[in-house]
């Protein structure tokens, strides 16, 4: 018996009846030889961790665009916080930690530069629309590894696709990530907003602080514990109405005071204009895309989608660099 088979057997014996089992996975689109060490979900986790799109997350905006400070969250640190929340919850519920972590690490691979401002810009420009969760699936299915994709399991792709609020993941591990994403960004965005001077801790409504706590650590602990208490031995992942109501209230508070705050978001209009200009330029000059994206069009993918693929993959700094190249006059060099 291989190490992988021993681990698979351990899952079947130890994990909750509601857990996704590696040995019972619905598999991959392309069959491949099993690893002798790693069950399929662990293998997916490793593939995501080592892919190029994951590395680029370190230079993509979470909330504050191109911040000067070293301690603001990026899309990468957000992803790691989601993964940690998800592992903690999955482990406590005897669900599949590897599957939860793989979904969490992959959920934002398709996110644009400049956060949701970039996503809105591409959605407005592209006739086919643009949604980052669908783009994350496109990254792992088509764009990574020179067009081969990562060939992930059905369960991981389902969790990535359905991590947004409107999604309905088919595994409990996917449901965990869907909630862990909200828990992470509500709390770390408050932390970053306080760091930026946009909020004070005392600005957070007392009615929510009384439910979930006054510090980021107490709020995280309250929310994670609440999910675990209300999901033990149940076929769904959920929060209590009281804590869920406080989390939703905090999210709405953040929309009013941070996400839509003119001071905090003063540069977003420029970011939207930049992404729109890049889209228009590349659509009219498709030959200036890297060969891989030109080849996508020749293989039947639309020009609009290929342009979105390239721009969505950019980091904040690379998008600025390309905008300067095409639209900002350069000094003469003899």
Describe what is shown at a glance.
With about 325 residues, the chain is an all-alpha fold. The chain has a domain at about 40-260: Hypothetical protein af1432. Helix content is about 60%, strand content about 0%.
Return the average pLDDT rounded to an integer.
95
Helical proportion, percent range: 55-70%
By DSSP (H or I, 4+ residues per run), the number of helices equals: 16
Q: Using the CA coordinates, give the radius of gyration.
A: 21 Å
CATH architecture of the domain at 42-259: Orthogonal Bundle
Tell me the name of the CATH class of the domain at 42-259. Mainly Alpha
CATH H-level superfamily title of the domain at 42-259: Hypothetical protein af1432
Unreliable stretches: none
Strand content: under 5%
Number of strands: 0
Which structural class fits the helix and strand makeup? mainly alpha
Distance between the termini: 69 Å
For this structure, the CATH topology of the domain at 42-259 is Hypothetical protein af1432
Quaternary structure type: single chain
Largest sheet: none
